[in-house]
Amino acid sequence: MFDNLSASISNALRNITGRGRLTKDNIKDILQKIRISLLEADVSLIVVNESLARIQSNALNHVVNNNLTPGQEFLKIVKNELVAIMGKKHCALNLQVTPPVVMLMVGQQGVGKTTSVGKLGKFLCDKHHKKILVTSVDIYRPAAIKQLKILTEQVGIDFYSSESYAKPIDIAKDALQQARIKFYDVLLVDTAGRLHTDNVMMQEIQQIHFAIQPVETLLVADAMTGQDAANIAKSFNSMLPLTGIVLTKVDSDTRGGAALSMCHITGQPIKFIGIGEKNEALEPFYPDRIASRILGMGDILSLIEDIENKVNREKAKKIASSFKKTNTFNLNDFLDHLQQLRDIGGMNSLVEKLPGIGSLPESVRSQMNDISLKRMEVIIQSMTGLERIHPEIIKGSRKRRIASGSGTSVQDVNQFLKQFNEMQAMMKKIKKGGIKNMMRNMKGLMSPGAFI
What UniProt keywords apply to this chain's record, in alphabetical order (predicted)? Predict the structure, then answer.
């Protein structure tokens, strides 16, 4: 989502981070470039004007830290402002109340509300170990209730079923009563999509809200709607006491302006972002991490959390133990690594969280994608068990068979085997202590401003 915004802001900042002195003129020049970047990303004009005014004031009146260059200090000011725009800090769900904690999900139709309910239920079950009950009061959309029921079965949480002819307010009340009787920790209520200009539907959601008194009222908004998403959020917030926002389709090719505008305009925090179609593709929203990602500094903390939560530790430990004993790393092991990389979001998710990616040439970045990983997988899967363990036996006729089976060319197979041989050599060096030298060379990468 932030690729284009990150690239344009990084390019704008690149000319100033090495400066030994900041002046009113070069600050004005860089702010104009940042202004264009933000407006092109669909950030609200009001937000852009207010933010750039604060950046300019802070930059002109700021005392430079002795450990940083003026350019690096300016980068720090920009980052702090981006964090402030997006809400300053992560706002978690309020789970510290007498159960059941009632959460009401509202929003327009087609924003991904129902799938977000399923994702949130899974998140609360897996991360907070809560007993979850989910219900739908959407009696207007065909199969909406059935869709949510299927989702809850997929993620392993309970569903309170209702009839399509029942009144939404009665369904909500009955589900709350069920949650109390059976000692559920959280009740998630999915509602029908509605336009904020539809008075009848807005009155209905207000009545439901009054009847069940939710602890959390979360607006689900589509990041692809750009500036309008912030206006929609503002309208909903004027009619309902929202407690937060769930921003969906953040993984799409959007401009990123919604995330930078919604919190500032509504006064409500973005609590989660949807980053894909999978049921686990929901992340808590951390303004400081997103700001670092936008500025090309990466998001190492989120990457570490992805690895901790999604990597199969037993399998990784088994591979490491085998390598330690036999000093071999074969294609079966490599296939396991590729599949685990896919489980944590794939190469695209990994790359956007690594520091310094924005400064790499486009020709290099274009090669770091999930398509190349999938090609590697199908090449390995087209090999026999013996070939995976002993790739050195793969010669002419075998290469042609593998290329034909994987839908690739012999040249692709040759290139893959060459890359794998280089990886094997690197693994052996790491085992002999070469990792120390590798880490020593990487030390300089973590200094402020090193990636711009």
Answer: Cytoplasm, GTP-binding, Hydrolase, Nucleotide-binding, Ribonucleoprotein, RNA-binding, Signal recognition particle
